[in-house]
From TrEMBL:
Location of the AMP-dependent synthetase/ligase domain: 96-482
Chain residues that bind ATP: G399, E400, P401, D423, T424, F425, W426, Q427, T428, D514, R530, R541
Cofactor entry: Mg(2+)
Name of this chain's protein: Acetyl-coenzyme A synthetase
Keywords tagged on the record: Acetylation, ATP-binding, Ligase, Magnesium, Metal-binding, Nucleotide-binding
Length: 662
């Protein structure tokens, strides 16, 4: 924990009561219903979770102990219980009346769409699972999934779950090097990928990047590369190692007995950035994780049998796990899975797709909303008012704070003032929503994620772990373990403890890494931003140290410091201060080198990590003991004048040089 954010949250006073038509049918009935659930959790925490786990999941063997805290913070939930996640998501829907219901409406990049029923999805997953087994892949093995948005991507995840293999999805925008690092850390036995991905009318490589990653070396554990043919583009094939998905499943049976696993069995590992070191492999469980994915579909999204639900996230992020691959299927929902990008063929694509498939629940990121506001300012034809959005009844946001202006536009222009907005605060580590309004229940305040879900003991404390009063900013923590929480960091239990359960806070409180403040009167939470060196660019999480390491790995670079700065569209953007081994470049030289370094970072990590701006200096602002003074760099990045104390600065002259682009 580097510092406490004490900045006051936005002093937003507008309150939007849930629209009445919505209230009448909401899953949780009013604030009384919410308070009753909270009181139940307060009175008998384990009883509360045991009841929900029995009501919402199908267990092959019932659990005998709800929560085991003996080895805290390595908590165990639902001990003795055995289940299968894919059984819960698919087989259950074959016998409860959903067999012919559409599970997935796949909206392809080119505007074609195809419907897949629960029966068809089940068959696909079983064949896929049998195919994996035929290659010797088994329970406990790790499988990397490097795919774009597709029915096959979701089927790959479910197929792993079916046989008890632990998947690790790597976002298709990550570089070969990032992919290689994850393959090695996970010790994966196979990679599932596609020949290419289709985004915005362009064919982009996937298989070629897998080949490149494996050629970087150290990936000897990989025995199979399974390739879904998406575009038919030309790709290299390594005999014995590579196999087409259609060949793998061709002769497989459409029945695959699920592998019954312990509730704690690792369903997946998902890598995410921390403030230091390499990305952390966040490990999630099967039972507790699925319980929360399913339950929050009902509580936060009020999902009903007739809904058409659409979450625009990618399966490469946790949102695509909990709210595409697992949550919606676990509750038998119909969902849209979108392959493309929001701006192709034009920036009306989201609204066009909502109208086309009569989407009723829509979940996206504030960055997307902000960029579509801008696009419709430029081209009024793509404004939501030109599309029939009358099917919408609920809107959601995730990934970063939503500014009140964007919230208001979403509420009025997209939701027609009839749709509640759920501003869902959560993290890769939390597995599912933590703090969010309940639709039709919680009065909404633009920019506030309002109140914790029942059973989530969120609080704000100071650096010693002591509660701070409402109205005073502090550190966001969760005081009790919850079923869908991170179980450990793969290969690194010590880092799990120090990152999330630091001794300074007593070792038993979960440290979220965000600052927050509660409203004096309502107790509503507003997230004030990360308190560590983690950036949030377009809702994508990135460690400043990772980007610095990537820059320093370039032979031209002597030193680098990376900071975030506020950005109108992307929330935050990346600004890098770089000292070269050669003399400080200026003018065109500086521009050329900045471009070269941006591309370098793209190659090292992925295009999402490319700094928006690079400034060159002869040195960086440092204290006498040689520590880089990042707080000064943050001020410079914003283009503001430094008014802070610089008495500890060794080389004040450097500030002038770093004030603007070289
Ligand atoms: C970080 C987690 C949760 C899935 C996608 C991102 C920020 C997330 C909100 C929100 C304000 C938010 C936090 C958090 N964040 N949702 N509704 N309001 N901030 O998952 O990559 O693990 O990032 O995203 O800073 O710590 P992630």
């Amino acid at each position: 924990m580097s510092s406490t954010t004490t900045q006051q949250g936005p002093q937003e006073t507008r309150v939007f009561n849930p629209p009445e038509a919505f209230v009448a049918q909401a899953t949780v009935s009013g604030m009384d219903g919410y308070n009753a659930l909270c009181a139940e959790a307060e009175a008998d925490y384990e009883g509360f979770w045991a009841r929900l786990a029995n009501e919402h999941l199908s267990w092959q063997t019932p659990f005998t102990r709800t929560l085991n805290e003996d080895d805290a913070p390595f908590y165990k939930w639902f001990e003795g219980g055995k289940l299968n996640v894919s059984y819960n998501c698919l087989d259950r829907n074959l016998t409860n009346g959903n067999a012919d219901k559409t599970a997935i409406i796949f909206e392809a990049d080119d505007g074609k769409s195809v419907n897949v029923s629960y029966t068809e999805l089940h068959e696909k997953v079983c064949k896929f699972a049998n195919g994996l087994k035929s290659r010797g892949i088994k329970k406990g093995d790790r499988v990397i999934i490097y795919m774009s948005m597709s029915v096959e991507g979701v089927a790959a995840m479910q197929a792993c779950a079916r046989i008890g293999a632990t998947h690790s999805v790597v976002f298709g925008g990550f570089s070969a090097k990032s992919l290689q690092e994850r393959i090695i850390d996970a010790g994966a036995v196979a990679v599932i990928t596609a020949d290419e991905q289709l985004r915005g009318g362009k064919q982009l490589p996937l298989k070629a990047i897998v080949d490149e990653a494996l050629a970087l070396g150290g990936c000897d554990t990989i025995k199979d590369v399974i390739v879904y043919q998406r575009t038919g583009g030309n790709v290299g094939f390594t005999e014995g190692r590579d196999i087409w998905l259609h060949d793998l499943v061709a002769d497989q049976s459409a029945d695959c007995e699920p592998e019954w696993v312990d509730a704690e069995h690792p369903l997946f590992i998902l890598y995410t950035s921390g403030s230091t070191g390499t990305p952390k492999g966040v490990q999630h469980s099967s039972g507790g994780y699925l319980l929360w994915a399913a339950l929050t579909m009902k509580w936060s999204f009020d999902i009903k049998p007739g809904d058409v639900y659409w979450c625009t996230a990618d399966i490469g992020w946790v949102t695509g796990h909990s709210y595409i691959a697992y949550g919606p299927t676990a509750v038998g929902a119909t969902q849209v899975i979108f392959e493309g990008v929001p701006t192709y063929p034009n920036a009306g694509r989201f609204w066009d797709t909502v109208a086309k498939h009569k989407v009723s629940i829509f979940y996206t990121a504030p960055t997307a909303i902000r960029s579509l506001i801008k696009a419709s300012d430029v081209d009024p034809k793509v404004h939501p008012k030109n599309y029939d959005l009358s099917s919408l009844r609920l809107l959601g946001t995730v990934g970063e704070p939503i500014n009140p202006e964007a919230w208001m536009w979403y509420y009025t222009q997209v939701g027609g003032e009839r749709c509640p907005i759920v501003d869902t605060f959560w993290q890769t580590e939390t597995g599912g929503h933590m703090i969010t309004p309940l639709p039709g229940v919680t009065p909404m305040v633009p920019g506030s994620c309002t109140l914790p879900l029942p059973g989530i003991m969120a609080a704000i404390v100071d650096e010693a772990g002591v509660d701070v009063p409402n109205g005073q900013g502090g550190i966001l923590v969760v005081k009790r373990p919850w079923p869908s929480m991170i179980r450990t960091i793969w290969n690194n239990p010590d880092r799990f403890k120090t990152s999330y359960f630091p001794d300074e806070l007593g070792g038993k409180m979960y440290l979220a890494g965000d600052g927050a403040i509660r409203n004096k009167d309502t107790g509503y939470f507003t997230i004030t931003g990360r308190i560590d060196d983690v950036l949030n660019v377009s809702g994508h999480r990135m460690g400043t140290m990772e980007i610095e390491s990537a820059l320093v790995a370039n032979p031209l670079v002597a030193e680098a410091a990376v900071v975030g700065r506020p950005d109108d569209t992307t929330g935050e953007s990346i600004c890098a201060f770089v000292v070269l081994k050669q003399a400080r470049p200026t003018g065109d030289d500086a521009k050329k080198l900045a471009l070269e370094l941006r591309n370098w970072v793209g190659k090292e990590i992925g295009p999402i990590a490319k700094p928006k701006e690079i400034r060159f200096g002869d040195n960086l602002p440092k204290t006498r003991s040689g520590k880089i003074m990042r707080r000064l760099l943050r001020v410079l990045a914003k283009g503001e004048t430094i008014t802070q104390d610089v008495s500890t600065l060794e080389n004040p002259a450097i500030l002038e040089q770093l004030k603007e682009a070289s």
